[in-house]
Amino acid sequence: MDIKILPLPAEKMKQKIADETKLSFGKQFTDRMLLVEWKTDRGWFDARIQPYAPFVLDPSAMVFHYAQEIFEGLKAYKWADGRVALFRPEMNARRFNQSGERLCMPAVPEDLFLGGLQQLLSLEKDWVPSAPETSLYIRPAMIAVEPVLGVNPSNHYYFFIILSPVGAYYAAGFNPVSILVEDHYVRAVPGGTGEAKTGGNYASSLKAALEAKKKGYDQVLWLDGREQRFIEEVGSMNMFFAYGNKIVTAALNGSILSGITRDSILTLALSLGYEVEERPIEIHDLMTDIRSGKVTEAFGSGTAAVVTPVGKLCFKDEVVQLSGGKVGKLTQELYDTLTGIQTGKRKDEFGWVKFVE
Ligand code: COI
Q1: Which of 88, 218, 236 should be mutated for ligand 1, with most atoms under 8 A from CB?
Q2: Range 278-285 average pLDDT
Q3: How many domains does the chain have?
């Protein structure tokens, strides 16, 4: 599909942040965005790269009422030689369509998703920051815009991509976070939408996150929605626990997000000589193993969160420390290896990196 490039008037051009080390997460956006529409009787049409601008939507647009929405998250990195690299973008294109299938939304052809992203990035390359721990966060999304209040799949969608120069997701940067195991609210149930990257999953997580913050925790760790016995995910990251040389993470069970960073960590850990295990993780067993010192480190993984060390975990008023509240050796090694590949400092043995042309 041809993508029209609309002019960017000088008055729509934004000021870039002068000090990249001050970048926070997702508060500033670049000059341009990609927008493509889909209608039941037309399929995909009107692909355009246009100045970043608000949407004018009917108040009855379905997304406002029934949350028919999906999104993705990936990053572009500025390499020392000036090239701009993407990390496994085809995985995001694939997962986007899996989420869309669950939400009854039309599939975005992979060449439109990836080709549109390439064209947008080649115009917005100058926005990719190069300071350590910075990148250009890429947010593809799709929303239902048909102005109808009946509960049905929409007949009209916007697929769009916006870009945001970012620093670390957690304000503390690469430092241990504290996590509260949530034993009241649940995020997802078998057969629900937990595996899809859809806004509703995040909206329903806000209350628990807020209550955890009030108690001094950065995030909540969700338990399964049926028995509240097994560990699921943190919401912005999948969780890993190190048992010496073995790394354990919750098995994908349909209600956990199938993280691309999660998958990369499992592959990297194996290649570095660690054992990996994907299995149900029972919370009481985990607490026993942390108390006895069998669990030596814990960390989360995600596009935004990268590899985030966990220094403290609280379950039902029992607080336990991990790696003495410091960044563990294995966590550091995986962080260095992953970010090394993403930023061109380490060899990409797995063919994960794709350059912006
Ligand atoms: C990502 O890591 O890209 C995500 O989508 C998590 C988001 C909630 C910041």
Answers
A1: 236
A2: 98
A3: 2
The answer to whether residues 131 and 20 touch, using CB atoms and an 8 Å cutoff, is yes
Taking the CA atoms of residue 147, residue 142, residue 138 and residue 300 in that order, the dihedral angle to the nearest 10 degrees is 120
At 269 the pLDDT is 98
Ligand 1 atom nearest residue 71's Cα: 5
In the DSSP assignment, the letter for residue 37 is E
- Ligand 1 site residues (CB inside 6 A) read 73, 202, 236, 302-305
Q: Which residues contact 157 (CB under 8 A, 6 or more apart)?
A: 37, 38, 105, 106, 142, 143, 144, 145
Neighbours of 241 (CB within 10 A): 24
Question: Which tens digits make up the pLDDT trace of 91-139?
Answer: 999 999 999 999 999 999 999 999 999 999 999 999 999 999 999 999 9
Q: What is the model's pTM?
A: 0.96
User: Encoding tokens for residue 137?
Assistant: 């966060």
Which residue is associated with the tokens 């991509």?
Answer: 161
Candidates 166, 206, 264, 303: which one to mutate for ligand 1, based on the most atoms within 8 Å of Cβ? Answer: 303
- On whether residue 262 sits in a domain, the answer given is yes
Is the confidence at residue 170, as pLDDT, over 90?
A: no
Domain of 31, CATH number, reads: 3.30.470.10
**CA–CA separation, 77 and 206 (whole Å):** 30
Q: Which amino acid type is present at position 338? A: L
**How many angstroms separate the CA atoms of 251 and 289, rounded?**
18
Minimum-distance ligand 1 atom for the alpha carbon of 303 = 2
**Count of CB atoms within 10 A of residue 242's CB?**
23
Asked if residue 158 lies in contact with residue 144, where contact means CB atoms within 8 angstroms, the answer is no
> Which residues touch 45 (CB under 8 Å, ≥6 apart)?
36, 37, 38, 39
Residues 262 and 151 in one domain: no
* Structural domain contains residue 62: yes
- Cα of 11 vs centre of ligand 1, distance in Å, is 31
**Domain extent for 216:** 177-343
